[in-house]
Amino acid sequence: MSQKVYGRLFLSIGAMKAGTTWLYAVLAHHPALHFTPEKELHYFYHKYIDPRYLSQLARLRTANDRYLRFNPERVDAERFRKQLRWTADYLSEPVDDHWYRSLFQLGQHETWACDFSNLHSFVPGDAWRRISDNCQHLRVLYTMRHPLKRLWSHTKFHLQVTGQLDKLDSWGPEEFEAFVRQPFIWDNAEYGAVLRRMREGLTSGQRLAIFYEDMHADQRGTLRKIEDFLALLPAEYPETVLEQRLTESVEHPMPEFFAGVFADDIARITAEIEAEGYIIPEAWVR
Description:
alpha/beta, Rossmann fold, five-stranded parallel β-sheet, 17 helices
């Protein structure tokens, strides 16, 4: 086996509610990109931040929820066999670099192993250097969305999936602020910290940061930029794929007071992005 355990690895580490699911669904149509059945493996978060994250129990729950249930009257038998083989690897021990590598079985024309994992945005800078040292080639993509709109979308989405939508109408400024400042929501908004960690551990050629607003203003142009980043020939993406809307939050207007609660934070985060050399989209300042 090569000393470079990971081979050619493409990681998307974009903030939650910043377009990564759409990117995943579209880029899965590129013939040179290989995705595992599990969109978010979170291996480097497990390795460098929380070694409990991929416990055997956690992986058993994931496998049971997503891969082991099937309708025998409708299942594609060959596809299901492949999924079972992959699931067996996913449930194997120990969870280490070779476990992670075993989850990517590239086909004849696939050149990049792809892992879209938002928790990887919290990987420390020195860990990025170690990951890079174990890759033949490493590319890391980070997507950002207007911080206030991302906070609101993330808040709505979480309350939606946890059956608490009534809070959108009953909470006042103090309740919203206490909820939004919880680390699982707030830390996703600290774009400057993520950019600094990427800069610390990755070369300029290994990292690319893009904006959600630019991505949807020019979808094909953004996809071409990513293909260039990966040194790939352009792919044809069907219009129906580009138009799909995924993991949308419930429609609900932002309370008038919401922006004021976080105004100083938004100004700081924006300044930190600009300090890293990025030009804020016009949509952020309108």
